[in-house]
Amino acid sequence: MDERKNKHIKKDYSDEFKGGRALREPKNAEAFINKFSNFTVNILTIILIALYSFFG
């Protein structure tokens, strides 16, 4: 009985660790999305300035 209880506790800790890793991963994904969105915004502004200078 005690051995089973200890195994259960270990399993809970491993799940908690996995959850922590899963929580950390989306932050990296968010940082990547933010960098990507900033990159696309920069490209759009460059295109806009190029069009403005071309037609203006």
UniProtKB/TrEMBL annotation:
Transmembrane segments: 36-55
Superkingdom field: Archaea
Keywords linked to the UniProt accession: Membrane, Transmembrane, Transmembrane helix
Record flagged with keyword Transmembrane helix: yes
Record-given protein name: Uncharacterized protein
Organism: Methanosarcina thermophila
